[in-house]
Write a structure and sequence with these properties.
The longest helix has 14 residues. This protein is 41% helix and 23% strand. By secondary structure, it is α+β, with helices and mostly antiparallel strands.
């Protein structure tokens, strides 16, 4: 995660005294590129897109 994601950053996701973990998940999985090794090569991906690819591959074959 980016270095700005410390404990204080999570206060941005509290609404009416409840932490909105769905919004944290959405932001982390759709907005941040991460590196991964795919087919022996390093690539940069959005986690949500890679998850969708893996699910499609597993259940559409």
């Amino acid at each position: 995660m980016p270095s700005g994601w410390d404990g204080e950053r999570f206060f941005d996701f509290i609404k009416d005294g409840i932490m909105n973990t769905k919004e944290i998940n959405r932001q982390v999985n759709f907005d941040f590129l991460v590196s991964d090794i795919i087919d022996g090569k390093r690539d940069y991906i959005y986690p949500a897109e890679r998850f969708k690819e893996l699910l499609t591959e597993k259940y559409m074959n």
